[in-house]
Each structure stands twice: as C-alpha cells, then as structure tokens.
Amino acid sequence: MGKSETLLIKEPKEIDIMTREVIRTDKAPAPVGPYNQAILASGQMLFVAGQIAIDPSLGDVVYTEDVVKQTEQVMSNIEAILTQAGATFADVVKTGVFLADMNDFAAVNAVYAKYFSEDTAPARACVEVSRLPKNVLVEIDCIAVIGG
Questions:
Q1: CATH at residue 117
Q2: Is 6 inside a domain boundary?
Q3: Checking DSSP bridges between strand 54-55 and strand 60-61, what pairing results, if any?
Q4: Which of 2, 20, 71, 126 is the most buried (most CB within 10 A)?
Q5: What does the pLDDT look like over 63-75, one tens digit per residue?
Q6: Which residues form a coiled coil (predicted)?
Q7: Residue 59: which domain range?
Q8: pTM for this structure?
Q9: How do residues 99-113 score in pLDDT, each as one tens digit?
C-alpha cells in the first residue's frame, strides 16, 4: 500500500515584500570586516553578526587571556545590538558559539546562562574552531524574533 498525501494549495492574497534594515550602535564594536552589526529583516527577524571581546570605547580586544571576561564583553556587545533593534535576550531563538578551545565550554556556559532563563534559552550550536578573529577566545552570534 502506498503512502497517501494531501497537498493544500492556497491562492496568494497579497505579496509580502521583505524589508531589510541595517542595525548599528556605537555601544557595540564596529565590525572588523565588510559586514554590519546586525540586519533586521521585515521588522521581525534580527540577525546579529558574530561578536568578539572588543570594547567599543577602546576599539580593541580586551581580556586577551580570560575567557570569562571575554564572554561577558561579548554578551554586553550583543545586548547593545539587541537593544538598538528593540529586542532583548528573551527574543533570541538561536545562538552560535565559537570557541578557540572546547576546554572553555563550562566557563563560557557559566556566563552565557546569566542571560537566559530555562524558559527563554535559545537553540544553540557550540563548536571549537582553529582560530578566531584577532585571536580572541570566544565569538557568539545570534538570531532573534522580535514580537514573536
């Protein structure tokens, strides 16, 4: 016996046009390459570029040997970008965590957990990479849904 499927076809009522807004704030570091801090798509989906431990007031990497303090700076940078876009950590649905050394996993998690409750913790991937920009120890990016 074959598998039965039902295909539902709806007539489009109107065409949705996706908008794209660049999000920038001086409360987070300027990008270190040809990209933006974040892009807000259709006023709802926020894509935050990977953040590293650059203090925006100094324009340079801080805490070069301390993954805990680097993670705190990264989360502060992400928070500034979320705020600029009208979002909070509760709106974050996905993060990507990139570590120079997987042995830092627990230390990074200890800081990361301060920003999310069990109910608001996003989906996440965490990988070890061979090298990060400016030789930092951690980089985190995220996707948020505003008003979702």
A1: 3.30.1330.40
A2: no
A3: antiparallel
A4: 71
A5: 999 999 999 999 9
A6: none
A7: 20-145
A8: 0.88
A9: 999 999 999 999 999
